[in-house]
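Example record

Each entry pairs one chain with its bound ligand, iron/sulfur cluster.
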Amino acid sequence: MKIRTLIQTLFLLCSLYIGVSFAHYLHSIMTGDMNVVKPGGVEAFLPISAFMSFKYFLMTGVFDRVHPAGLSLFIIFLIISAVFKRSFCGYVCPVGFVSELISKTGAKVRLNRYAGYILSLPKYLLFIFFFAMITMMSAGAIAAFQRSQYNMVADAKMLYFFTRPTMTTAVVIGAIVLLTLVIKGFWCRFLCPYGVLQSIAGYLSPFYIKRHKEHCTNCGKCAKACPMGIEVNKKGMVLSPDCIGCHDCVRVRDNDRCLTVGRGYRPDRLAVWIVCVLSVLVIFAMVAGFWDSSIKSADYLRLLNGIDGIGH
Ligand code: SF4
Ligand code: SF4
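C-alpha cells for the complex follow.
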C-alpha cells in the first residue's frame, strides 16, 4: 500500500471513529449520562460555521466557544493546504478519499477541457455565494448566528442528515456516486466549494508539480495516475486549481528527472511532514484550550429534544 493510501485510510478510520463516538455521545446524554464528552473532531464537518467564526476571529480577536474545534480545524486545514499545496484534499479529507475509491471501481469517461470548465461552474458559484454571504455579515450578525440554537446543534443535524436520509438526500447522494463511477473525482472536481477554498490557499505553497520537458518521455503515466484528471504530461508547471498536492504523478513518473515536487522534494517525506504538522497543530489546539465546546451537555440535550423544530 502506498503511503498516501495509508494516510488517507487512517484519516477515514479516524473520521468514522469520531462519527461513532458522536452518536454514542448523543445516545448517552439522551439516556441520562451527562458525564460523556462530545468529540470535538465532529465539528470539522461544519465548515460554513467555522468560516464565519474565522471571520469573527479576524474582526474581533475572539475565538468561538460554541464550536472551537471546528474553527481550530478550519485554520489547521488551511495551513496544511497553504504550506503543502492543497494537501488537505490529497491526504486528509475522508470525502475525497471515498470519492477516489469509488472512481477506481468504475468506468472512465475522459472529459475535454471545455466540458471540465462548464462542469466546474457549480462549485465556484457555491463558493462565491458562501464567500459573499460571510463577507457581508457584520460581527454582530455572526455572533448572533454562533449563539443560535441551529448552530449549537448543527453537528447533530449533520449526523442525522446522513443517518436519517430523506428521499431527496438519498437520490442526490446516489446521483453523485453514479457520476463518480464514470467521471474521476466528480465531487471534488465539480461540486465541492470547500475544495475551492483549499485550492486558493494552495497557491501560497512552494510545492508545485513541475514537468521537465527535456526529461519527459511522454509515457502518460502521470496523467493516468492523477485522481483529478489533470493532463500532467501536457503541462510545464501544474498550476491547475484542481491539483490536490497528492504527488501520485511523481510517484509513478517514468524517470527521476521528468517530474519534481518544488525543488525536488521527496513525495513520501512530504507525506510524513503533512501528518506531523497536522498532528502537532491538533494537539496544540487541544492543550491550549481551543477544542472543547462551552455548551454543557444538559443545554445540548434540551436543544436536541426539540431539534426537528430548529431551523436556520
Ligand atoms: S474537494 Fe472537497 S471533498 Fe474533495 S478532498 Fe477537497 S475538501 Fe474533500
Ligand atoms: S497533478 Fe499530480 S499532485 Fe496534482 S492532483 Fe494530479 S497527481 Fe496529484
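The mean pLDDT is 94.
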